[in-house]
Design a protein that fits this description.
The protein is mostly helical and 252 residues long. The chain is built from 15 helices and no strands. Helix 2 packs across helix 3, helix 12 packs parallel to helix 15 and helix 13 runs antiparallel to helix 15. The protein is flat, with a radius of gyration of 23 Å. InterPro entries: TPR-like_helical_dom_sf, UCP030959_TPR_rpt-cont.
Length: 252
C-alpha cells in the first residue's frame, strides 16, 4: 500500500505538471510538484486550479461546495462580518442565505423578515427566499400563503424557483390536486432536474409508486439528451433519480 500511495502522489503531480505546462504557469511549479509531490499538488490545486475553476458557473459551484465541506461556517462568518461593516439590505439577505444554508431556518426567517422593511417591504425575490425558509422550517401553509400574496401583489413576476417552492408547499400542505398541476407545469419548462426529483419523492410519499416509476424512466431518457454542462450542474438531482429504482426494489 505505501508503494501504491507514493505512485498515486506522483501521478497526481504529473497531471498537475501537465496542467502547468499547458496553461503557461511559472516553471517553479514543476520543482514544487516533483520535490514535494503530495503537498505540492495540494498547493497547486488551491493556488492555480481552483481560482481558474471559479471563472465558470460550474466551477464556482465546485469551489463553493469544496469550501463548504471544508469549513461549513465560513460563508456565514464572512456574511456576518460584511453586514457588520455595511448594514445594507443586500448584506442582510446574504446573512439570511447563509443561515438557511446551514440549516438554521428560524434564524433565516427572522433575517429575511428584517430585510423586508421600508422600500424593500414587497421585494419579490426576498419574499421567495422567505417562503423557502418557511417551507424548510416545516411551515408549509405559511410558505404557501406568502407566495399567494406575492402572486397577488406582483402578477407579472416570474420565478422558476418560487414556482417550485409553491408546488412543494402545496404538496406539503395537503393540496394534492393543485400540487400535481403545478409540478406538471414545472416539469414542462424548468431548466433543471430538481422538480422531477422532488416530485418523485412526493409521489413516493403519497404511495403512488407506479407514477413515480414512470416519471423516473421518462426523466432518465430526458437526461440523456441534456448537454454535458447541464448534467454536471444537476449532478446531485440526477443521482437521486438514479437511486430511486433501487430504493423501490429494496422496498418490494
Amino acid at each position: 500500500m505505501p508503494i501504491f500511495g507514493l505512485g498515486l502522489h506522483i501521478i497526481v503531480a504529473i497531471l498537475c505538471a501537465v496542467h502547468a505546462l499547458r496553461t503557461g504557469q511559472e516553471r517553479y511549479w514543476l520543482l514544487v510538484l516533483f520535490i514535494f509531490p503530495l503537498l505540492g499538488s495540494v498547493i497547486y490545486a488551491l493556488a492555480v486550479v481552483l481560482p481558474q475553476l471559479s471563472d465558470s458557473r460550474g466551477g464556482r459551484r465546485v469551489v463553493r461546495d469544496i469550501r463548504q465541506s471544508l469549513d461549513p461556517g465560513r460563508e456565514l462568518r464572512e456574511a456576518q462580518a460584511e453586514f457588520e461593516h455595511s448594514a445594507t439590505i443586500a448584506n442582510r439577505v446574504r446573512v439570511a442565505d447563509a443561515l438557511h444554508g446551514t440549516g438554521r431556518f428560524s434564524e433565516a426567517i427572522a433575517a429575511y423578515d428584517e430585510a423586508l422593511r421600508g422600500v424593500h417591504s414587497d421585494d419579490p425575490d426576498i419574499q421567495v427566499k422567505l417562503a423557502r425558509a418557511l417551507l424548510d422550517d416545516g411551515r408549509a401553509v405559511e410558505a404557501r400563503e406568502r407566495l399567494e400574496a406575492l402572486i397577488g401583489q406582483h402578477p407579472d413576476y416570474k420565478s422558476p424557483e418560487g414556482h417550485l417552492i409553491y408546488a412543494r408547499a402545496l404538496a406539503a400542505s395537503g393540496d394534492r390536486t393543485r400540487a400535481r398541476e403545478e409540478f406538471d407545469v414545472l416539469i414542462g419548462y424548468f431548466a433543471g432536474i430538481e422538480p422531477r426529483a422532488r416530485y418523485v419523492g412526493i409521489l413516493r410519499d403519497w404511495g403512488e409508486d407506479a407514477a413515480a416509476d414512470a416519471l423516473v424512466e421518462e426523466s432518465l431518457r430526458h437526461i440523456k439528451h441534456m448537454p454535458a454542462g447541464s448534467r454536471r450542474l444537476n449532478e446531485e438531482w440526477i443521482r437521486q433519480l438514479k437511486r430511486a429504482p433501487k430504493r423501490i426494489g429494496a422496498a418490494t
